[in-house]
Every structure is written in structure tokens, then in C-alpha cells.
Amino acid sequence: MTMNKLIGAAVVGQSGGPTAAINATLAGVIRSAFSKESEGCITKLYGMRNGIEGFLDGRIVDLGEIFKNEDGTANEEKLQILSQTPAAGLGSCRKKLPKPADDPAFFENLIALSTSLKAIFAMRTASATASLSTADIGKEIEETIRGI
Length: 148
Fold this sequence. Notes:
Blueprint: E1 8-12, H1 20-37, E2 42-48, H2 51-56, E3 60-62, H3 63-67, H4 76-83, H5 104-116, E4 119-121, H6 126-129, H7 134-145
Parallel strand pairs: 1-2, 1-4
Antiparallel strand pairs: 2-3
Helix pairs in contact: 1-4, 1-7
């Protein structure tokens, strides 16, 4: 069975309690995303400032500009500092998303914003992430990118 490969920008945000663990997870996501750029899957990695609320307000940052060396490789020193820093590096939020059936316009807007960035968009809450290791999250991203 042949799987289609998803190609596009990736968007990551933080939600939930601001801890060093949430930043370590973010560092793992950044490493994984950068490693997929060489395979042509991820074209750019954006970070949502203050989670989904920031994304909806257009507050995104290019994480490549922050966490890459001049040669395009991941800056491990910056990623190590991020992973050991308490708080939420991108800023967190606690916005409860509506159910799609209750507010389809919300999700249409979310899809439109993602499309404008040519982004692959996947959501994971902090509580759902807490039980996963960084390697598990990286593997999950890789499986998503390989084509659902």
C-alpha cells in the first residue's frame, strides 16, 4: 500500500501548564521537524505565540530563524537551553476549543489560516502530551508527515 506524503509548513503551539517539560517537548518537536526538512516534508516550522489564541490573532514566529545555525542545522545549544527552561517558551493559553458541530466557522477560520501558511496542522493538548516522551511525539509527527 502506497501512502501519500504530506508536504508543507508545520505549526506548533503550547497549551497548558508552563513547565520545563512543555519546553523539552517543544525542543523535541523542533528537532524532529528540522530533521524532516531534509526529506522535503516540512518546508518551514512556525511557532504559535500563546497557543491557538495567538495563532488565531496571527501571532506566529518562524522557529527556523530562532533555532537554526547559519548552515541550516539545528542549534543544539539553544534547544538544550529551551528544554531546561521553566515556563512556556512560546507562551501558553488555556482556550477551550468548541466542538466542530457547535462552531463550524471557528474551524473554517483555523483551516483558512493554516492554508495561508501552507501548513500541516495537528493539535495536541498538554494533558494528552504529558504521558508521551519526546521520542514518542517525534515518532507521531513523523507518522503524520508520512501521510495519514
